[in-house]
Specification:
The protein is of the alpha/beta class. It contains six helices and five strands. It has a five-stranded mixed beta sheet with strand order 1-2-4-3-5.
């Protein structure tokens, strides 16, 4: 019991339980910046989140058949917590398999949805946001190849961007 807060310490208990059951994950929120060629003539700072198991690199090499990062992107108004909230079993299974997970925020989030934020459009998400976020995952993960899971707009923007920028 915590006399100062008047609670029974469930938060601390949950942390200890996670440690004992090996449910620990490292989370890092990083940013990337688009170029200033957007429809509103400014660059935009975008967020991406890395969720990774706390396994050692040697252990991950032993249990994982694929070292490529897995990138998740939600639809309109989805933020960096969409996949963990809506597909927790998938995320947990991939983490337990030692996979390097990244969540990207094409639309939504604190740097994009505010009264003074730019009124971005679909072309900006296709031409600037998605490429900047994917390049960020590649740079931060040190991997050129990745796997991608897109939901709704996260899929449509990815396909449109790849179609526009694919090499002949």
């Amino acid at each position: 019991y915590n006399a100062k807060s008047g609670t029974n310490g469930n938060y601390f208990r949950d942390i200890i339980e996670d440690i004992l059951l090996d449910n620990n994950y490292e989370i890092a929120i990083k940013t990337v910046q688009t170029t200033s060629g957007t429809s509103y003539g400014q660059n935009t700072t975008l967020r991406l989140k890395n969720v990774n198991s706390d396994f050692s690199a040697t252990f991950v090499d032993t249990i994982t058949n694929d070292s490529r990062p897995v990138v998740f992107s939600g639809g309109l108004w989805n933020n960096l917590f969409y996949w963990e909230q809506n597909s927790p079993v998938l995320i947990k299974n991939l983490l337990n398999d030692g996979r390097d997970l990244w969540e990207i925020e094409i639309t939504g989030g604190s740097t994009q949805d505010c009264d003074t934020c730019p009124n971005y459009n679909y072309n900006d998400t296709r031409d600037y946001y998605w490429p900047a976020l994917i390049a960020g995952v590649q740079k931060y993960s040190n991997q050129n190849s990745l796997q991608y899971v897109g939901h709704s707009n996260g899929c449509g923007v990815a396909l449109a961007s790849i179609n526009k920028y694919q090499e002949s």
